[in-house]
Specification:
The protein is mainly α. It is 80% helix and 0% strand. The protein is built from five helices and no strands. Helix 3 runs antiparallel to helix 4 and helix 4 runs antiparallel to helix 5. It is elongated, with a radius of gyration of 16 Å. The relative contact order is 0.15.
Length: 130
Amino acid sequence: MARTLLLVVLFIALFLELALSGGSFFAPAFTLAQFGVKYGPDTKFLAYIVAWLLLFVSLIALVAVGQVWQRRPSYATWCYLLGLWWIGIGVGIYYVFGKPDNLLLDSVKGFLIVILTWRCQATRMMTRRY
């Protein structure tokens, strides 16, 4: 059950990251507005960097989904990395900018991934050898 829930949370997280990444590449003004930044010549580079960062996080989420799906022993490393990343992002944005929506979205997502990964390890989820 924990593995199924972990896969569901990872798929949702992957979808959200890919949507944000695509938005950053194809609608940078809209994406930057979500972060409270006006799009202009000075922030064009920022939009580009944010798009690549979100694409990189999407790639890590895709690898984590693949590892959990195939029951690889290294799934926990990828899941803990993603979970702690999103917890840190959510808490950091809340602490610095006072945005509770990011705290809820990112930190809860990260917390769920960490807890579900821990539950999968606690129940000794069957893993495949390489």
